[in-house]
Amino acid sequence: MTVGIDKIGFYTPGLALDLVELAQVRGDEPDKYTIGIGQSVQTIVPNYEDVVTMGVNAAQKILTDADREQIEMVVFATESGVDNSKSAAVFAQKLLGLSPFIRTIEMKQACYAGTYGLMQARDFVALHPGKKVLVIAADIARYGLATPGEVTQGAGAVAMVVSDDPAIAEIATDSVYMSRDVADFWRPIDSTTALVDGHLSTDVYKEMFLTLWQRYQDQTGMKLSDLAGFAFHLPYTKMGKKALDQIMDQVDADGQAFLRAQLAASQVYNRQVGNLYTGSVYLALLSLLKEGDLQTGQRLGVFSYGSGAEAELFSLKLSDGFDQVVAQQDVAGMLAHRQMVSVAEYEEIFNSQLFDSAVDSQSQAPAGTGLCQFLGWQSGERQYRIG
Predict the structure, then answer these.
(1) Which of 157, 248, 269, 324 would be 55's cystine partner, CB 3.0–4.6 Å?
(2) CA 271, 92, 286 angle in degrees (round to 5)?
(3) Domain 4-169+328-386 fold
(4) How far is CA 3 from the centre of its chain?
(5) Out of 49, 72, 106, 111, which one is annotated catalytic?
(6) How many CB atoms lie within 10 A of CB 99?
(7) Is 223 assigned to a binding site?
(8) What is the pTM of this model?
(9) Residue limits of the Hydroxymethylglutaryl-coenzyme A synthase N-terminal domain (predicted)?
(10) What is the CA radius of gyration of the chain?
(11) What is the average pLDDT value for the chain, to the nearest integer?
């Protein structure tokens, strides 16, 4: 039986900041952001958006009534959870109109948890043919104003339906993975922003990729030339290049040129959004599927990394007609229609978030959008609406 990704959808809030403008205000050279880091624009999160709203909005783009009837489980991966007890998946279940007779769970391990959720979904469907699992990876990368990590902020959600007749790609059972206790990135319980050692994180990312690639080759016999490209976790787009450069000598000049072009295709959307933690690698995958040079039956490598640290490398085999399915997602159009804000407006929005559950408050949610929105706090409870 073939199990894999049947549908994939992406959502990011409708506000964005030009990073050239941010660099100028911060007194930095724009090339430091656009070339050195590899980011051009980042999504800005208004106070009426959170991981629940983004996850629901991404899922609404792909779910049909038939999907809702067949979904047996919702796995919500995030490191930006809205409650320390109640899973974001429970909120999503109600807002998406799913059956009460399903499992709903939230998972956390930095940026890696979406991959664990995808693997759990694959295993569940393999044991329960005809059932489907909804996997949501949603996050808000928030480091603080005028901090070293500010340029890599971002937000968004990727929703995937896993089934036993996947229209996009089969998830191979060839995973290799590893974990190490590393202090490269963390967010204490009492903090709304992350702490990060950027240089260490880059070093560990590269080291884990190289280690797992060697292990993957040993266990599968696959060569770099057997892959039509990679989807990397991209906290910033330059990170994928740093990893791939380590193994480029394993293919000839034509192979190197092809893989670089595929890497560039996988970076298109992340460059315009910023870091979305658990969803980052799957936004890169969607970008590669939409913008890359791919054909049915080809195999893609996927490298998922989460600081702290955990990583996994596996492959996907493209289904017949995958391009027609992903063509239905107009990501470029969504990104192009975002409203650009000034640095001053961005700073005001950044400071307007409603983190205090002890104070009844209302967000600035506009009416009539048709989207899921966070309305604010009432008696310590989060309030949501769709419409």
Answers:
(1) 157
(2) 30
(3) Peroxisomal Thiolase; Chain A, domain 1 (3.40.47)
(4) 21
(5) 111
(6) 11
(7) no
(8) 0.97
(9) 2-164
(10) 20
(11) 96
